[in-house]
């Protein structure tokens, strides 16, 4: 028997009462006590109120190799839909008189039983209504596509890092760069075209392409290479035929390649100052497979022109002074190249599946106006990185990235359209492709290394123009004849009627239905890429080592700039025969040029000449002193920069 003392019982009751009170304060849910005698309640079948109707279809099991053959329409269903059959003089008389030989040409080929799904020998009963309705065949006309893409990067990064008085300041610092840019305009092919504002502008644009020529009056010191016509086919680097495209990665400046190393920061010099290493890149890629056909007929004529113009202009004149130290100069020359590739690749139409007979029906899609495909890309990079620095190096390690700028423009297009069997154009066929590339660089540096000397890399720049035009599908100009002339005249009147000679073209052999596109305007294809890089990197620097750092490893990089233009145009099509009533005009032009400025660029006429009376007061020997050209001169090359900005005044 358990005996509980009165004191314990009082304590237990107190704790119990305290516990119940605490739980009530916390709003604890008190459940009912279990009753073993209570009868269990059966709610029955519960039907949820939010029941969603079951999906009426079930996914069947996968059946590999399942084939489906659509039902073929009966001849009574085809006839009203494909009403444009080969012209039969007995059923559809020509509205104007034709010579007997042309009438024979318009007679259709021998046609047997109209296409039907029934096997030979068991034709359906005449006038039997179709068992299943067949949808009417339609072929919509394609749409035009036009893209104008303008990309521009402009950066002014003129840094001023000084330890004392400002050494100099000049107005019109970009005037020499403007001179180089103007000279580049004189070196390239002049093609004054603007984005078209209407359909009439394309013919004028084609005439400008036709009249474009390489410049005659080249600036002094420039070199150029020009090829035309079939001579443009192939790969050319600075006017010389080559077998492959140059390796751009291997041509990058040495310092730029070092920067690509993951451990670059650990391998830098003790004191490294980078005022150059700028990179400007334009890249454009156009892949056009918009409209193609193995046979085309143009009533007015055909114009096809291709132009590639590449120009590199630069000035890299450096002045380096180290009166108290030994210099390790790395003045690798600027590397500039123009590479162009132009190719025509055959792409014959694959033989269609069929018995090889001529088609007996055709479907026509008519387009009011012109069918236009225009890709217009204009890319422009401008960086002004004229730095002025003067400082003394302290500490154990220094890394100053004062230049090291980058500007990139990139665009890539892929346009996929439609293929027809025959295209009839009431106007012109205009196919215009142009790539215009220009690089301009001004890298005239002035460097003054104080006590201790150091390593200097002031050249080793890279300028590259890379252009590629690939046309897949050759064009064969076959002229015209009476049958095509008559067909085009009828099409101009709004009636597309194909004679037997057209239907018997080998390009249509084996086709049951001929897909015909009728364009009442012009068929226009324009791919225009213009790329320009302009860099001003004329740096002026003075560096000194503190007494504690004499003999330290110092490296100054003022060059190692990279300017690259890369453009590619690829037109996909099939080998086509073009019948033209107005002639066929085709030409190609490749022009590559470069100019290296080997003399200082003056920014103006300078101050007025000294009065003759002042000559009498000049000290002896002053007139004989030759300080050279000081348009861009070293900073305080006659002495160190004073520590006190007011030193010369207080002395």
Can you offer a commentary on this structure?
- The chain contains ten helices and 30 strands.
- It has 651 residues and is mostly beta strands.
- It starts with 5 loop residues before the first helix and ends with a helix.
- It has helices at 6-25, 75-81, 100-106, 175-187, 201-211, 248-251, 254-259, 482-492, 500-503, 647-650; strands spanning 145-156, 160-161, 222-228, 234-237, 240-241, 271-274, 279-292, 295-298, 301-315, 319-321, 327-330, 335-345, 361-367, 371-384, 388-393, 398-401, 406-419, 422-425, 428-442, 446-449, 454-457, 462-472, 475-477, 513-519, 523-536, 540-545, 554-557, 562-572, 576-580, 584-597.
- Mean pLDDT is 76; it is low at 73-128, 164-172 and 602-651.
Features:
single chain; 651 residues; mainly beta; 30 strands; 13% helix; disordered C terminus
Provide the structure class.
mainly beta
Instruction: Kindly state the number of beta strands.
Output: 30
Widest beta sheet: strand line-up: 1-14-25-19-9-30-3
Radius of gyration over alpha carbons? 41 Å
What helical percentage do the residues reach? Answer: 10-25%
How many angstroms separate the termini? 115 Å
Strand content: 35-45%
List the helices and strands and how they pair.
Blueprint: H1 6-25, H2 75-81, H3 100-106, E1 145-156, E2 160-161, H4 175-187, H5 201-211, E3 222-228, E4 234-237, E5 240-241, H6 248-251, H7 254-259, E6 271-274, E7 279-292, E8 295-298, E9 301-315, E10 319-321, E11 327-330, E12 335-345, E13 361-367, E14 371-384, E15 388-393, E16 398-401, E17 406-419, E18 422-425, E19 428-442, E20 446-449, E21 454-457, E22 462-472, E23 475-477, H8 482-492, H9 500-503, E24 513-519, E25 523-536, E26 540-545, E27 554-557, E28 562-572, E29 576-580, E30 584-597, H10 647-650
Parallel strand pairs: 1-14, 2-15, 6-16, 6-27, 7-17, 7-28, 8-18, 8-29, 9-19, 9-30, 10-20, 11-21, 12-22, 13-24, 14-25, 15-26, 18-24, 19-25, 20-26, 21-27, 22-28, 23-29
Antiparallel strand pairs: 3-30, 4-5, 4-12
